[in-house]
Specification:
two-stranded parallel sheet, two-stranded antiparallel sheet, Arc Repressor Mutant, subunit A, mainly alpha, 2 domains, about 210 residues
Length: about 210
């Protein structure tokens, strides 16, 4: 029986998830059903490779078979994500750095695509939309406390979603699909200035006329 996955710290589950292709597949199946063939086409990957990752995700309970459809003598298998898994802090700490970077790159790529499409389609026009960035200076305890605040916010939004679904199912309101993205990370160093480039710019004559 496929089980719902939330926070995961089982090394087997973390290892099953720790692949950029699987992260991308989960991102697609969060919003709609798809067959391995459709996923392979969208990801520009061979069908055999995609099917392998789909089987692994289903085996560990990250996705489920939503329906089957007979098409020209073949059976299409349509899959959907069960839940958005979150690797626990303890499991994340124990992951090899190479896997962390691969998963981060896959997640950031998906997030960038979603945000860019949202901007292009005017999805930030609602006055309550949020797109903010705030730099802070914290210590280790402060970092953990800030992380807890963000996790609590996501849990609260999940509770809000349940209330919204009840109103939608009762016909009292219309569905509004939304995306919430949360980030908290060590601030990167600023880009290094190229002193030679600055010097060249200073030596260039001005193009304005007197």
């Amino acid at each position: 029986m496929t089980r719902r996955v939330q926070d995961i710290d089982d090394p087997r589950l973390v290892k099953a998830l720790a692949h950029p292709v699987r992260v991308r597949i989960l991102g697609i199946l969060e919003h709609r059903t798809a067959t391995p063939k459709e996923l392979a086409r969208e990801l520009s990957l061979p069908l055999e490779n995609t099917s392998y990752h789909v089987r692994a995700l289903r085996e560990f309970g990250f996705i489920k078979l939503e329906r089957k459809r007979q098409v020209r003598g073949a059976v299409e298998h349509h899959y959907r994500a069960v839940a958005r898994p979150r690797v626990s802090a303890k499991a994340w700490e124990q992951m090899p750095e190479s896997l962390k970077q691969a998963m981060n790159a896959a997640n950031i790529s998906q997030l960038s695509d979603i945000v860019n499409r949202g901007v292009e389609q005017g999805k930030f026009s609602r006055p309550e939309s949020q797109l903010q960035r705030m730099p802070y200076v914290l210590d280790d305890d402060g970092f953990k406390a800030a992380s807890d605040v963000l996790s609590e916010a996501l849990e609260r939004i999940s509770a809000i979603e349940k209330d919204a679904k009840a109103r939608i199912e009762a016909g009292n309101s219309d569905p509004v699909p939304v995306v919430t993205a949360v980030m908290l990370f060590d601030r990167p160093d600023p880009p290094r200035l190229d002193p030679d480039a600055d010097a060249d710019a200073a030596l260039k004559p001005s193009s304005s006329s007197t």
